[in-house]
């Protein structure tokens, strides 16, 4: 679940116009692969059509390969940040081009809760119940990821609609209060047997 009291849209944070963000523990193989794929394969396609585009790679313990991505023009590797919600709210779009992963991808749910439009793989989105074009955009290859990111840069209204639907989805299905209620109900049923 997601603590929606920690991850929320913050209108007091100034949004950067063309900032892509990816968040994850940056020494875990699936996150390293996604960060490299985003920085080396997807971001150059975006940058070639939008020279103002920036990419933030945020997360603890970036390995040497991830750190080296900071040498690409427009890419910044931040490492761990104290206020993740603030950095999410500064960004225009959350991109998570995960090609393999394990478990629930809380990073995507947190971005949704913070009110960011998300571009990710069908594997990730379908795994947590998101719906294409309703509350998420899916990329099947680097060109499709880049096209969706550029679309969100060009039309903030589409991004806002997707982000609002994604936040509503998280509040309905993944907020901590709801998850705790479900756990308590299951425990009560088990204890009454």
What structural keywords apply?
193 residues; 6-stranded parallel sheet; 8 helices; alpha/beta; Rossmann fold
Q: What's the helix and strand layout?
A:
Blueprint lengths: L18 E5 L5 H21 L4 E5 L5 H5 L6 E5 L4 H7 L2 E4 L9 H8 L4 E3 L1 H7 L8 E2 L3 H13 L1 H18 L2 H16 L2
Parallel strand pairs: 1-2, 1-4, 2-3, 4-5, 5-6
Helix pairs in contact: 1-6, 6-7
Task: Please give a quick description of this structure.
This protein is of the alpha/beta class.
Q: Can you walk me through this structure?
A:
By secondary structure, the protein is α/β, with parallel strands linked by helices. It has a single domain (19-191), classed as Glycogen Phosphorylase B (Rossmann fold, 3-Layer(aba) Sandwich). The protein has 8 helices and 6 strands, in the order E-H-E-H-E-H-E-H-E-H-E-H-H-H. Strand 5 (118-120), helix 5 and strand 6 (137-138) form a beta-alpha-beta unit. Helix 1 (29-49) packs across helix 6. The longest helix has 21 residues, at 29-49. The radius of gyration is 17 Å and the shape is globular. It starts with 18 loop residues before the first strand and ends with a helix. The mean pLDDT is 93.
């Amino acid at each position: 679940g997601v603590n929606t009291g920690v991850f929320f849209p913050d209108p007091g944070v100034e949004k950067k116009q063309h900032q892509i963000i990816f968040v994850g523990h940056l020494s875990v193989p699936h996150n390293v692969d996604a960060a490299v794929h985003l920085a080396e394969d997807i971001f150059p396609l975006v940058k070639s059509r939008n020279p103002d585009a920036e990419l933030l790679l945020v997360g603890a313990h970036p390995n040497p390969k991830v750190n080296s991505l900071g040498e690409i023009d427009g890419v910044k590797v931040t490492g761990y940040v104290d206020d993740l919600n603030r950095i999410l709210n500064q960004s225009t779009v959350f991109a998570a081009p995960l090609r393999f992963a394990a478990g629930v991808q809380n990073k995507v749910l947190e971005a949704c809760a913070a009110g960011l439009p998300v571009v990710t793989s069908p594997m990730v989105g379908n795994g947590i119940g998101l719906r294409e074009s309703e509350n998420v955009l899916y990329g099947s290859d680097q060109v499709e990821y880049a096209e969706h990111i550029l679309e969100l840069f060009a039309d903030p209204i589409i991004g806002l609609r997707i982000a609002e639907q994604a936040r509503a989805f998280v509040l309905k299905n993944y907020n901590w209060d709801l998850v705790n209620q479900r756990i308590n109900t299951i425990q009560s049923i088990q204890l009454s047997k």
